[in-house]
Amino acid sequence: MNIAVEIRPAALPAVLPITSETAAASKRIVAGYGFWLFLLSDIIMFAALFAAYAVLAGATAGGPGGAELFSQTNVAIETACLLASSYTCGLMSLAVNSRRRVAFYVAAVVTLALGAAFLALEIREFADMIARGATPQSSAFLSAFFTLVGCHGLHVAIGLVWLIVMMAQVAVKRFRASVVRRLLCFSLFWHALDIIWVALFTVVYLMGVLP
Amino acid sequence: MSETQESGPAGLAIYTIGLALAVVLTATSFWVANTSLLWSPGIPLGLAVLAIAQMGVHLVFFLHITTAADKTNNVLALAFGLLVVFLVVAGSLWIMGDLNTSMVPMHHGSP
Question: Concatenated DSSP letters for B76-105?
Fold first, then answer.
């Protein structure tokens, strides 16, 4: 079929490092491609959690549902934080590409602050819900909710730790090839988390409060 | 995606356009969910369309997934991932919905 013919030119440079120049380029491509495959597998895991949530969304066991629990204002601020941090992460990639260290640090710190603000708002929301008796074990709906949203929050927390590590690596090792590759993977990870959040706020927080 | 080495004004413009589109789509989503002006049975579908559009914007402007010749592998992997996501979500909803309708009615509160 045509597809097999079409993918060959793209695959060739990746598997045939001829000179040191192409070898360096291909390593970057392979690292990005491999990490992209990991992200897709992560998205498939989230799809399973989304499916579980969609199936169990009505199973409130007589307890509170989404309309009573979710605050639209809180979700709007969380969304703004994550979207802005995705943008500053993009600016960080640009700074890395042109090897500007100060711009990199500024963008990284802003990304870190916005991500931390998102996480703080989410933890506050969870604590508030648990204080009102809406714990994960009180209904199937809440189990699915805390698993899905908590798993995304956990990813954000891991991303924040990763970003701190990358800032330290840039401070010590500067923009050497391996550090730039890791920064590329980090930016892919961070943008993918924002994509998952788009699905999350739509399915959980917006559709969940419709009458 | 990975091999993009864009920098300077062009790269900044791409991210800024992406941010502007994402903000517009997000704001529209929140407005659609809270307004009483629209036909309410159509709202979930509208929200789904807006979300898919925004995910597309993120993929193109932030993750740089395009149809360029050197990105075919990434796009093929994405297409396969989306197929699996569709099977998992639609399949689960279909099967569980079927099970739900064929279940013997139970009365809440009775043992």
Answer: HHHHHHHHHHHHHHHHHHHHHHHHHHTSPP
Report whether A211 contacts B40 (CB < 8 A): yes
Size of interface A-B (CB pairs under 8 A): 144
Angstrom CA distances, B21 to A81, A87, A185, stand at 16, 12, 24
Is A67 in the B-facing interface, judged by CB distances under 8 Å?
Answer: no
In the chain, the amino acid numbered A32 is G
Whether residue B78 lies within 8 A of chain A, CB to CB, comes out as yes
What ipTM goes with this model?
Answer: 0.84
pLDDT, tens digit (0-9, with 9 covering 90-100), for A22-41: 555 578 888 888 999 999 99
- Residue of chain A whose alpha carbon sits nearest to that of B96: A55
* CA angle A154–A155–A156, rounded 5-degree value: 90
Q: For residue A30, give the amino acid letter.
A: V
Dihedral over Cα of A30, A40, A146, B43: its sign: positive
Nearest CA in chain A to B47: A202
Helix (H) or strand (E) holding B41: none
Least confident of A48-52, A99-103, A200-204, B100-104: B100-104
Nearest-CB residue to A55 (from B3, B7, B92):
B92
Separation between Cα atoms, residue B56 and residue B51, nearest integer Å: 9
Judge whether A23 and A32 are in contact, CB under 8 Å.
Answer: no
Rounded Cα–Cα distance for residues B17 and B25 (Å): 12
Q: What are phi and psi of A188, to 5 degrees?
A: -60, -45
A30: nearest CA partner in chain B: B2
